[in-house]
Amino acid sequence: MLNTAIKAARRAATVINRASFDVERITVTEKQHNDFVTDVDQAAEQAIVETLLKAYPDHAILAEESGASANLNDESEYAWIIDPIDGTTNFMHGYPNYCVSIALQQRGIITQAVIYDPVRNDLFTATKGAGAFLNEKRIRVTKHDRIANTMIGSGHQAGPRALDEYMRMYQIMAERCQAVRSSGSAALELANVAAGRIDGYYEKGLKPWDIAAGSLLVTEAGGICGEFNGESSYLYKGDIIAASPKVFGQMVTLLSPFA
Ligand code: IPD
Ligand code: CA
To answer: Is the beta carbon of 125 within 6 A of some atom in ligand 1?
Structure first.
């Protein structure tokens, strides 16, 4: 199943790479204020869904652009959670930080994850219980134990309320860390936590397709994911802190007032 997901991600990346040479020609539609979809998101998603359903016609689908398949429910034995381009705003501006994200959920548990960054040709994979990998090399979260030594990723939703809250959280984090970054792709932020490129990441108001694959990468790389109060229903709540274990605890202490 992981191999099929990799094949699907690479097919989507072919569509994305072709379009990235001429971003002026991309058709952009605004779904909500500052939330965009392009014709490339849709074509990439179609390539992914076709590849997965050709191999597994009975599996359910939850995809960012086309939504839930009719057979998706809480008891679905197999459900694929798909974000064809995480970082659509980056992509349509030609800013090279976006990825394809595909996760398999088995009876409510994420068991397979693929995040593919077509710009760097970075393939992140994880299987539950079998570790996380970047281009087939094992990856692990960082070993920093003090928040003062960390670089942390972050992000926020559009709209004045979310922005106001983000600014307050940013101040708290930026005063304590070496740096706080906001790169515009939740999935890549999580992959970067797993790969030890950043020490932690936090964001509120995400969707399952933004975080499903990345959360398995983080936990399989030895990290922890949780809600802002530290609890574990982050996938559908959409508020997530992800970090190495010691940094996770310190982030929860700092950010739990925003839970
Ligand atoms: C977005 C990205 C971004 C996050 C947004 C997401 P999209 O996903 O993950 O980093 O801040 O909340 O919606 O729309 O590019 O797939
Ligand atoms: Ca997304």
So the answer is: no
Overall pTM > 0.90: yes
In this predicted model, what pLDDT tens digit does every residue of 212-232 receive, in sequence order?
A: 999 999 999 999 999 999 999
- Pick among 2.120.10.90, 3.90.79.10, 3.30.540.10, 3.40.50.300: CATH of 2-138: 3.30.540.10
Half-sphere exposure of 156 (CA within 13 A, CB side): 15
Could you identify the atom of ligand 1 that is nearest to the CA of residue 157? 12
For residue 205, give the ligand 1 atom closest to its CA.
12
CA–centroid distance, 87 to ligand 2, in Å, is 6
CB 151 within 8 A of CB 177: yes
Give the fold, CATH level 3, of 147-258: D-Maltodextrin-Binding Protein; domain 2 (3.40.190)
CA of 63 to the centre of ligand 2 (A): 10
Q: Provide the residue type at 252 as one letter.
A: V
